[in-house]
Design brief:
The chain has one domain: Jelly Rolls. The strands form three sheets. Strands 3, 4, 5, 6, 8, 11 and 13 form a seven-stranded antiparallel beta sheet that branches. The N and C termini lie far apart (53 Å). The protein has 155 residues and is of the alpha+beta class. The protein has one helix and 13 strands. The N terminus is likely disordered.
């Protein structure tokens, strides 16, 4: 039994490293593309140009890891003082609370979101975004693959 426990701890360590490596790969992918213009889905707002490269930023190397590695992001500090996170959400159902208002731009994959205090669930895919009020929260569901995002902190 002790041997199995050691193996599980070792496996868990590899799993955490693998999640972190995927997040680093996400950042490197984002840094390799200048800009990507993405079409809107039917019923969504006009197409948006989602930045996937950020110049003159400080990247925080320490990952933000939530829900046992199912959600991983890295923080970018822009020259003007603005803060963003780049992240990936793997399949699952999660709830996030917000201190500041946030804008979540989906840059790969898709998700379903229900804002706190609302009953409607909205689907978001590449090229779409949603905003969450300050001091609020949202439920997010990813069912297949992963959902990559850029989170901007508003106000």
């Amino acid at each position: 039994m002790a041997r199995a426990m050691r193996k599980n701890r070792f496996t868990a360590g590899i799993s955490s490293v693998a999640w972190g490596m995927r997040a680093v790969a996400l950042i490197l992918l984002a840094a390799s593309v200048a800009r990507l213009t993405l079409p809107a889905r039917s019923g969504e707002s006009a197409p948006m140009s989602s930045p996937v490269q950020f110049s003159n930023v400080t990247a925080v190397a320490k990952a933000n890891i939530y829900f046992d590695g199912k959600v991983v992001s890295h923080t970018l500090l822009l020259a003007g003082g603005e803060k963003k996170t780049l992240g990936v959400i793997f399949p699952g159902t999660f709830h996030f609370g917000t201190d500041k208002a946030e804008r979540m731009e989906i840059i790969a994959g898709e998700c379903s979101v229900k804002l706190d205090g609302q009953t409607e669930v909205h689907k978001y895919a590449v090229g779409t975004a949603f905003e969450v009020p300050a001091k609020s929260g949202f439920d997010i569901v990813v069912t297949d693959g992963g959902c990559e995002y850029v989170c901007s902190f508003l106000g």
